[in-house]
Fold:
Amino acid sequence: MKVCDLLNGKENHVLTVKPNETIGTLARLLQRHRVGVMVVSHDGRTPDGIISERDIAYSLAERRGELHLLPVSALMTRRVVTCTPECHLSEVMRLMKQHHIRHVPVVNGTQLVGIVSIRDMMEHRLNEMERRYSSVEHLVTLTD
Structure:
C-alpha cells in the first residue's frame, strides 16, 4: 500500500504554524486541535520544519517562564524527514524507526499534501491483520 492510498481515507488538511508564532500560540493550537505535532511553514504549503509537544516539554526544563514567548523557529526541527505520496508504507515505517520519529509530512514536489503518523500506521496494520484473520477464518470454515 502507498501513502496516497492511506491519505485517501484521511482529512487532507494539514495543520501548520508559522515560524514566527510563539510557543504559547502553538500550545493553544495543539490543544484546540487535539494533535501532538504541527508542520512549521511560512506559507502553509512548504515545510520549513516540524514541532511537537515533546519539543515543548523538553524545553520547559531549560526555558521555564520565557518558553511561551519564544518563536516556534527556536524549538522546531529544521531537518524534516518527509515522504512522497508514492512511497510505500513499509518505507515510511522504516523512516520512522530509523529516525525515531512519529510523524512524517507528505510532500509532492515542494507542496505539503498530508502527514502520516505512527497512529495511522498502527491502524493500517491492525486493519490488515483483521482482514487476514477473517480470510483465514473463512477458509477454515469452508474446509470443516
User: Anything to note?
Assistant: The mean pLDDT is 90. Residues 118-143 form the longest helix (26 residues).
